Amino acid sequence: MEKKKLAIFASGTGSNALNIIDFFKDSEEIEVAFVLSNKQDAKIVTTAPEAGVPVYVFSNAEVEEAGKVLELCFEQQIDYIILAGFLRKIPLSLFLAFPNKIINIHPSLLPKYGGQGMYGANVHKAVLANNEKVSGITIHFVNAEFDKGEIIAQFSCDLVENETLESLQEKIHQLEHAHFPTVIQNTLLQ
Ligand code: GRF
Fold first, then answer.
1. Atom 5 in ligand 1: residue holding the nearest Cα
2. Which residue, among 106, 17, 94, 41, has the nearest Cα to 63 in the 3D structure?
3. Is 177 a catalytic residue?
4. pLDDT tens-digit profile of 63-111?
């Protein structure tokens, strides 16, 4: 069987991207072909090549226009696109080229705390402001309505009384690191 090829899109630290790279580095079934970033100064731009995976940086305009991104994905024979902290809208032409083949991770239990403006720390701040007792992560397919694609898996964590932005962020990252690669694996190989 030919290996399934992943492209990971990331804009920031890329701890999820690195974790996925590490998880599949010896896999016979799945390979991370490249990381794409829209930020030249993102940490992942230097750390992914250190882990043996090339990085391509495109401007926001190039991402929106999609032509070069699509060309790269086709050229590299990408099967699935993984969004791991990619802070940019995915253009329609990419959904059309990869129907049900784009997977995102969102740091809340969707449909709660999804939609416009709900990314990164904004999500956790809103969760804390509402005194939620539980939060978590959602791994889902992406469709044209960003946070509304089919949910693949959710995992939750309890919030403690003195939960801070930092402690919640840390809990969420731990959940993401524990589950995102295995959910990708199960989804691709089912
Ligand atoms: C994660 O919490 C992810 O859920 C969100 O952005 C964050 C990215 O973190 N979409 P990292 O760059 O992978 O460390």
1. 85
2. 94
3. no
4. 999 999 999 999 999 999 999 999 888 899 998 999 899 999 999 999 9
CA–CA distance, 56 with 70 (Å, rounded to integer) = 13
Beta bridge partners of 134: 158
Residue ID of nearest Cα to ligand 1 atom 12: 14
Q: Are 79 and 33 in contact (CB under 8 A)?
A: no
CA 179, 91, 74 angle in degrees (round to 5)? 75
Q: Contact at 8 Å (CB) between 80 and 103? A: yes
- Radius of gyration for the chain, computed over Cα atoms and rounded to the nearest angstrom: 16
Sheet strands side by side (includes 80-83): 55-57, 30-37, 4-9, 80-83, 102-106, 134-141, 151-158
Distance 120 CA to ligand 1 centre (A): 7
Q: What is the pTM of this model?
A: 0.96
